[in-house]
From TrEMBL:
InterPro entries: MbnB/TglH/ChrH, Xyl_isomerase-like_sf. This is DUF692 family protein. It comes from the Bacteria. Pfam families: MbnB_TglH_ChrH. It comes from Fibrella aquatilis. PANTHER family: UPF0276 PROTEIN HI_1600 (PTHR42194:SF1).
Amino acid sequence: MAAALPLFEAGEVGAIEWAFDSLYRYDELPGWFADLLTTYGEAGRLVGHGVFFSLFSGQWTPEQAAWLTSLRALSQRFRFDHVTEHFGFMTGANFHQGAPLGVPCTPQTLALGRDRLQRIQDACGCPVGLENLAFAYAPDEVKQHGEFLRQLIEPINGFIILDLHNLYCQLMNFDISAPDLLALYPLDRVREIHISGGSWHDSAADPTRAIRRDTHDDAVPDAVFNLLTYVMDQCPNLRFVVLEQLGTALDTDESRQQFRADFRRMDAIVKAMDTDGNGLVNSFLPPKQASVSNPPLTDAALHAQQRTLATILETATDYQQAQTRLASSELAHTAWQPERWQPAMLETAIAIAQKWRRGIEGKL
């Protein structure tokens, strides 16, 4: 709040995104915060963003059911313009202690993801979208991601949050050009863009490289602002552009000043390219015939694989041990293709999973 309050006081904040499931430790919202949400919601400028639903978990859990119940109640209390979640599944057995990681692009995971998205849409009653993931094990996974997102959101007329720092991580980690990667995304389905900062981490598995991670704990790189300028006019249905940063990274006057400078730079880019909104051709409202089937779709084999992978990532001492354990697990020679995972990215997955298991909440 110390970082953002001057922006609110100056009337510079056009919309807010609320990670509504991140306040699980609190029984109720402070009055001033509820008033803020109400004010922006009534103006059509409040969007909800989920973190913990674990869209691709093979098992349906009581925590997921409770998450939907909470979303339904919040959607009745506050007016969300739209609601979004992250691609992937949470590795942790504990609902709030796990890392969001990807799944294979298969007919089984496609069906599971579509089932979950329909349930989110049924609960919130507004457009629903998915955010592209920052992490991948191998280049093929990166190149499949945009098309798989399109297939997932199709039945509910959903949309994509294009997180440009997530995209930047993939550009850097897999040496892909921005035009080549963006050509694989359905940019006409982009309704929201995220920008943020992150960090570089040296790799013991490959000492010649550093891995870019979406840690949300630093200023926005120039390259991400350049991506914003490059991609905005290719997204005909874009409605929101959002700056994200973890509050724990805004603990000095310098960092708070930098946050406001990043916001104003983002705002200037948006205003320079903004239109009156009359060109939007997709409201992303759900088709009226969409319905939720019961019981929720599950996949016992996928769940077993996810638990095995999570256990390996959360307990491995290094990537070599993880490789050995993966090779003798039920994930070997399956659609997960652990045989093709880059050692440096497997090492990164271990670091991510073990960080979240320790309860350090943040991004990838």
